[in-house]
Amino acid sequence: MRVLVAPDKFKGSLAAGEVAENISTGLAQTGALCVTLPLADGGDGSVAAALSAGFEPHRCEVADALGRARTTTIAVRDGSAVVEVADSCGLTTLPAGALAPMTASSKGFGEAIRYAVGLGARRIVLALGGSASTDGGTGMLAALGYEFLDGSGMPLQPAAHNLHQIEGIRTENAIDTRGTDLVVASDVASPLNGPQGAAVVFGPQKGAGGADVDRLESGLQHLVAVWARAGFRAETWAQTRGAGAAGGCGFAALALGAQMSSGARFFLDLLSFDDHVSDADLVVTGEGRLDGQTLAGKLPAAVAARSAPTPVVAVVGRNDLTSHTALFRDIYAVADFAGSDTSRDRARTAEALCTIGARIGRSYSPAPTDT
């Protein structure tokens, strides 16, 4: 039996490659022939997934969320580059247990984009998950040569706490990205502003209290007005699905002329999923938690749709579905095998995934025939 093991990460526990490896270890115990294809949907882990699929790593120096120097990795192959917020200036770059909702910056992400442009990438995939900031992408754009000016015409160091002070935008020194195809691969639906926007929905996850959320929301509204006064289509950008991703980096990407794409579907194409599934008798996919959002188009659902008619089994950390779905032939949850929540216990999660892989192998292996 040939099995394609193509999961997303188990967020906070195991990377997609580790999930795939442990499931495959269990499957191999039953004689299954496994091919692993760690996947991503444009969130954190996107660079790692691209590297697992054969992209080459390129390391560059950037500023983390607090402006400290760090090394990030971008993935490059055949003129395409994958650049990620999470590993450049995301939440994981903050000191352990610390959050900085008003001071964290997206500058490091812009520096990584600039590095990819310098490599001559013809297409740059912007992976926006795992961000620490809500600066409307001003830090990102500043790293690309945009200047944000105060009321006296003096340049500001852009950050969420001083969005209200921005009164002008200077673009003369911005790098030219017109020869580069910029793609935001994301399944975040939030616009920049409003009750479903960057500040209200994602601000609390980054440590913003009620007053902070209000200040962030009004600061982002002010930023849109400044862009509009400068003659840009800022109101349209702000209302676009995905503009609120990564604290407004989606909005900033639209200012650069980026195209929005479904993260799940885009990465399936980027990582040549169809070529891999064509030889499989069974597909195993999954993510940390299976719920109603999964069925609305997240990665496991996209895998199931693209795999048909090949049967698909989902392996997840937790199964929070309240009704049956025909998308998956079976659903296995680590929590059911481990007896408790293992989301922060890497060793127990890995052990449970091996056990589940063996269970799947025994359940789906062809029955022996008489000779």
UniProtKB/TrEMBL annotation:
Pfam families: Gly_kinase. The lineage of its organism: Bacteria, Bacillati, Actinomycetota, Actinomycetes, Mycobacteriales. Keywords: Kinase, Transferase. Belongs to the glycerate kinase type-1 family. One of its GO terms (biological process) is organic acid phosphorylation. GO terms for molecular function: glycerate kinase activity. The keyword Hydrolase does not apply. InterPro entries: Glyc_kinase_flavodox-like_fold (IPR018193), Glycerate_kinase (IPR004381), Glycerate_kinase_RE-like (IPR018197), Glycerate_kinase_sf (IPR036129). This is Glycerate kinase. Gene3D superfamilies: Glycerate kinase, domain 1 (3.40.50.10350), Glycerate kinase, domain 2 (3.90.1510.10). The keyword Cell cycle does not apply.
